[in-house]
Amino acid sequence: MIDVSNLGNSHIDSFAQTLNRQGTSSADDGLADLRREINTRLGQLLPMADQPPASLHNSMRYSLLGSGKRVRPILCVLVSEAAGGADRSFALDAGCAVEMVHTASLILDDLPCMDDAAMRRGRPTTHREFGQSTAILASVGLLNRAFGVIAEHHDAPPALKTRALERLSEAVGSNGMIAGQEIDLHERRNYDHAKPIEGLNWLKTGVLFVAAAHIGALAGNAPPSAIAAVTDFAKHVGLAFQTADDLIDQTGDAGAIGKDVGQDDDIPTLASLSGTRSAVLSCEENLSYAHGALRESGLETARLLALVDSIFGASGAGA
Amino acid sequence: MIDVSNLGNSHIDSFAQTLNRQGTSSADDGLADLRREINTRLGQLLPMADQPPASLHNSMRYSLLGSGKRVRPILCVLVSEAAGGADRSFALDAGCAVEMVHTASLILDDLPCMDDAAMRRGRPTTHREFGQSTAILASVGLLNRAFGVIAEHHDAPPALKTRALERLSEAVGSNGMIAGQEIDLHERRNYDHAKPIEGLNWLKTGVLFVAAAHIGALAGNAPPSAIAAVTDFAKHVGLAFQTADDLIDQTGDAGAIGKDVGQDDDIPTLASLSGTRSAVLSCEENLSYAHGALRESGLETARLLALVDSIFGASGAGA
Question: Which residues on chain B are in Cβ contact (under 8 Å) with A114?
Fold first, then answer.
C-alpha cells in the first residue's frame, strides 16, 4: 500500500488507496459489457492459436488476451459513441488495434535487455513463457496486425482509415511511444527534476491514450474543436495514469497488481523525485484538467466519466 | 566461391559464380540512378540523426542507410512504371516502406537470441553497434514508420493507400514474413526434404517481393490479370533470391558479401539437403518461370529485366 500516513489529508489518502486497487475496483461495472465485447473482438482479430506457426500465434494470443484493463479501446469506443457513433464498428476495431500496440510495447518492455520482468497481467511475461525470440516476434506481429486491422476494415471509408493509420504510426513512432521506451532505458537515470519525467510520461502513456481518443473522435465524425478538447482530456488522463502506475510500482503489492513491482527502485519517477504527496497531487491536477477538457469538448458522457472513475476511483473526479 | 568443380556444366558454373558476386555486379548500371533516388528518399523519410532520442534515430538511419541492394523498392517502382506510372511518387515511397520492413527484419534476424550475427551490409550489426535494446526499438521504429510513410503520402488516393497498407501488413504478418522467421528459428532444424524449405523461402523472402510488386502494380493502376502475373513473377524471383542467398551463405566469402557466412552450417537449406547443383537448378527454374510470368503480365520492360540480371547475372535470364 502507498504510505500516506504522514500526508495528513484524507482526500489524498483515499485517492492513494484507490490507486492500489487499480484493476480490482468495482467502480467500472457499467463498462463490463464493453470490456467483454472488446475481449471477444481481440480474440477474433488474431489468428487462432493452432494456426501454424502455433508457437507464434499462441504467444500473440497469450500476450494480448490476458486480463488487461482495456482502457485504450474503451476510450476509443466511448469517444466515438459520444461524438455520435457514426462508425462504431470501426472504433471498436481501431481501439483493439491500439490495444495490440500497447501489448506489443509491454512485451518489449519486459525483455531481459529492457526491464527484465518476470510477471505481467498476473502471469509469466511472454519471453518467460515462450522464449525471447518468439516474444520479440509476437510483439512485432501484434504491432503489424494493428495496422492490418485498421487497413482491412470493411465498412469504414478509406479516408478515415488512412487518417487513423497516420495517427497510430505517429503515436507509436520514434517521436512517440518508441522514443519513450528508448529514453526510459537510456536517459531517464540522469533526470533530476520533474519536468523531463512528465515529458517521458507523455511519450510512454499519453500518446497512445490520445491516439485512441483521436481515432474514436474521427470515427464518430466529431468536429475539429471537439477533437482538440477530447484529445486534451485523453492526454491528461494518460499522464495521471502513468504517474499512478509509477506510484503503484514504488509502493504496491505484486500479487494484487499482477506484475513486478519495485522495477523502478533505482530510477527517478515523479514520486521518487518529488515525493508521494506531490505525485498524488499531480495525478489529481491532471484529472481535474482532464474533466474540464472533457466538458469543453461537448463529449462528456456518463460512460466516459465512469471510465475515469473505474481507473482512479470516484475521488479522482474531484479537486 | 561455390564449389562447382564437379557439376560439369559451364552454364551452372557461370551462374554460381555470378551469385557469389551479388551486390558487386556491374550489370545493374542502368538502375544506378534509381538506386540513388531511393537512397536519397529513404534518408528523407526518417527523422534526422540528431533529433532526440539521437541514439534511436542514429540506429534507425545506420540500419536503413547502409549499402543495401534496394531490390524491393526498385521492383516496386519499376512495376509501377511498367504499368503506366500513374502514381510513381507513391510507388517510390511505398517501395521505401517495404525496404524499411526488410531492414527491420534483418535487425531482428541478427539479434543474439536469433542468428547472433556480427556483420551486415559490410558493417557491425545494429545490436553490436548500438546495443540490443536500441536495436530492437530501431527495428520496431522502422516497421512502424513503414506504415506511416504509406498512410501519410500526400498525393495518393486513400483507397490506394489502404490497399497498399493491407497488402503490406499481410506480407509482414504472422502468416507471412514473421511466420517465416519463427519457423526458421524453431522448426527448420527438423526439415529433411526440400518442400518445406521452399515454403519457408516463400515466407522469408517471397512475400515481401510480392508485396513490393503488388503495391507497385496498384500504384500504376494495372488491371487484375497483370497484377496476378507480375506478382507471380516477383514470387519466383524472390524464391530464386532466397535460394541464392543460402548458397552464398554456405559457400561465399564474408568480406565480399558484407555479412556473416556459414550462419546456416547446421541448419538445412535447399543446397544442403539437395546439393549445390540442385539448388542452382532450382534458382534457374524459378527465374525461367519468373520471366514467363513477366511476359504474360504485359509489364515486361528492359529495366525490369535489367533488375533480374543485376541480381543473378545475365545467365539467370536463360534456361
Answer: 133, 136
Q: Where are the alpha helices (DSSP H) in B69-206?
A: 71-82, 88-109, 126-130, 132-151, 158-172, 177-186, 194-201
Pairing mode of beta strands A119-120, B123-124: unpaired
Domains in chain A (CATH in brackets) are 7-312 (1.10.600.10)
Q: Does B116 touch chain A (CB under 8 A)?
A: no
- B119 touches B260 (CB < 8 A): yes
Check if the beta carbon of residue A181 is closer than 8 Å to that of residue A204: yes
> Å from B174 to nearest chain A CA?
6
Which residues face A98 on adjacent strands?
A: none
* Helix/strand/coil for A125: coil
Residues of B in contact with A139 (CB under 8 A): 140
Classify residue B317 by its DSSP letter: G
3-state secondary structure of B120: strand
Residue B83 and residue A39: Cα distance in Å, rounded?
Answer: 43
Cell triple for residue A190? 540522469
Cβ–Cβ under 8 Å, residues B134 and A178: no
Instruction: Give helix A32-45 / helix A71-82 axis angle, nearest 10°.
Output: 110
- Chain A residues closer than 8 Å to B53 by CB: 174, 179, 182-183, 186-187
The x, y and z cell numbers of residue A249, run together, are 510500482
Question: End-to-end CA distance of chain B, in Å?
Answer: 22
Q: Which residue in A has a C-alpha nearest to residue B133's C-alpha?
A: A113
Among A150, A154, A162, A203, the residue to mutate for chain B (most B Cβ within 10 A) = A162
ipTM: 0.91
- β-pairing, A123-124 vs A119-120, is antiparallel
In whole angstroms, what is the distance from residue B242 CA to residue B227 CA? 22
A145 touches B: beta carbon within 8 Å: yes
Q: What secondary structure letter does DSSP report for B26?
A: S
Give me the amino acid identity at A277.
R
User: Could you list the pLDDT tens digit for every one of the 319 residues in chain A?
Assistant: 233 334 445 555 566 566 655 444 444 557 999 999 999 999 999 999 999 999 999 999 999 998 889 999 999 999 999 999 778 999 999 999 999 999 999 999 999 999 999 999 899 999 999 999 999 999 999 999 999 999 999 999 999 999 999 999 999 998 899 999 999 999 988 888 888 888 998 998 999 999 999 999 999 999 999 999 999 999 999 999 988 888 887 776 666 667 777 666 678 888 888 888 989 999 999 999 999 999 999 999 999 999 999 988 754 433 2
Q: How far is CA A308 from CA A69, A239, A316, B270, B290, in A?
A: 12, 13, 8, 57, 58
B133 vs A113, A141, A170: nearest CB? A113
